[in-house]
Amino acid sequence: MTFNLKKDMLLGVASSATQIEGGELGHSWNDWYHSGRIRDGSNPARANDHYNRWKEDADLMADMGIKIYRMGVEWARLCPTENKVDQAAIERYREELSYLRGKGISVLLTIHHFTNPIWFEKKGGFTRPENIKYFLDFVSLVTRSFGDLVSRFITINEPNVYATQSYYFGLWPPGEKSFTKAVKVMSVMAACHIMAYEMIHKIRREMGYRDTMVSFAHHMRVFNPLDPKNPKHRLNTKLMKYYFQEALIHAMYFGNFKWPLKRVMPTEPGEYCDFIGLNYYTRTTVSKFEDGTRKDALKNDLGWEIYPKGIVKCANKLYSLIKRPIYITENGTCDNNDSFRCRYIYDHLKALCESGLPIERYYHWCFCDNFEWLEGERARFGLVYVDYDSQERTLKKSARFYSDIIRSRAVTQEMYDKYVKEQEYHK
User: What is the per-residue pLDDT across 189-219, written as a single tens digit (0 to 9) for each?
Assistant: First the structure.
C-alpha cells in the first residue's frame, strides 16, 4: 500500500488562464458563452477571479508545500487587438511570476491553452498557415516579456483536443464540423510548435540564458476495441489512435509530417522537445469512430473511465520514441464531492512511481475548481473547493492528502489509512 516518490520527482498543480482568471476580454470562450453554448450557463468572465486574487492563490499553494506550478497567460488580455499590446497586463503577469518565484514556486508557462482572441478567430485562426505569424508574434512577446522569470515553456496545450473539439465534433468555438479542417488545424499547430520551439530557444540565448526547456502538452489516451474479436472495432481503434495522437507525435516531436498531416511551412526534420509533456485522464473504448466508454467501467462524474494503468502505458509509448525527462503536465479527475480523488491520486502516482520511467514532474489538474470549458462550473476537478458566488477557497481532503505526500515524499501506511482506504470509485 505504501510507496515513495521517485528521486527528485516534484509534485505540483496546473491551471489555464481562461479557466481561472475571469474577465470579459473578447476571446473565443467569452463569445461561446454569449452564444449560449455553455452547458450550465456559467460565465468564464467570472471563473475564479484569479486575475485579482492571484496572491491569495499563490500563498495557498505555498502553504501546501507546492514548488512547481503550470500556469498560462491569456493571449486576448495581452493583445486585445491585432496591433495593440497591453503593457499593464504584462506588468501584472510579471508581478505574479516574481511573487511565485519569491515563494519558491517554479513556473512552467503555457503559451496557448485552447483560447484565441476574437480578432485572431476572425482571420481564420489556426485553419490558415498565413496566420502562424500572429501566433509567433505572441510567442516572441511572451518570451521577451517573461523569459527572465521563466525557463520552461509549453508552446501549445493539447492540439489534438483543440482540433477535434473545435473542428470535428463542433462542440467548442468556432463550432465547425469538418474532418479536413481538423487535420489542417493539427498540421498548422505542429508547424507553430516547431517554429515556437526554435524561437524561444533563440530569444533566451540572446538574453543570456542556457537553461531553456520547451515542449508541448500532448493529450493521450489508451484506446481499446469494445469487442477485440470484431474486425470493425479493431480497425476503428487503430484509426482513432493514429488520427487522434500518433500522427501528431511524429510531426511535433520530429517535424515528420505523416499522412494525413501536411507540412504547411518549410520546417526541417529534427527534435523539437526538451521534455515529454503528457496529459492523461482516461481510456477510450472503441466501436464506432467516436469516443466511447465501457459500460461496466469505473467512472468519474463526467462518465470518463478511470484507468490508472493507462498513464504508464502512454508515458512508455512516448518515451520509446524519444528519450527525454517526463513531465505529467496534467492528470486529475472530476469528483464533485471529493469522494474518490484521494484514491485517484494515489493510484496514478503509485503506478508512475513503480514504473521504470524518468518521471520528473507531476502536475495535478487542477489547483482550484474552475471554469471547465463546455461544462462550465458544474465539473469540479480542483484540490481546492471554490464557492463561485463568494470566491472563497477551501482545502478539500484531497488537498491535504496531496500536501502530505509532498512533505513526506511518500504515501505511508498511516496516510493510506487516513485518506485512501475508505474511498471507492463508482460505476
Answer: 999 999 999 999 999 999 999 999 999 999 9
CATH number of 3-420: 3.20.20.80
Render 267-316 in DSSP notation, one character per residue.
Answer: ---S---SSEEEEEEEEEEESSSS----TTS-B-TTS-B--THHHHHHHH
Residue 61's CB: how many other CB atoms inside 10 A?
A: 24
* Closest of 109, 102, 191, 100 to residue 145, by C-alpha: 109
Within 8 A by CB and 6+ apart from 203, the residues are: 140, 143, 144, 147
In terms of Cα–Cα distance, which of 223, 332, 328, 349 is closest to 284?
A: 223
Beta strands per DSSP E along 298-389 = 326-331, 359-365, 384-387
Query: Of 405, 355, 362, 366, which is closest to residue 9 (Cα–Cα)?
Result: 362
The DSSP annotation for 205-233 comes to HHTT----EEEEEEEEEEEEESSTT-HHH
Helices (H) and strands (E) in the chain, counts: 15, 12
The residues near 302 (Cβ < 8 Å, ≥ 6 apart) are 334, 375, 379
Is 0.85 topped by the overall pTM? yes
Tens of pLDDT, residue by residue over 220-229, are 999 999 999 9
Q: Grid coordinates standing for 33?
A: 458563452
Amino acid at 277: G
Distance set, CA 197 to CA 214, 265, 347, 355 (Å):
6, 14, 33, 29
The answer to whether 270 touches 198, Cβ cutoff 8 Å, is no
DSSP letter assigned to residue 41? -
Residue type, 314: C
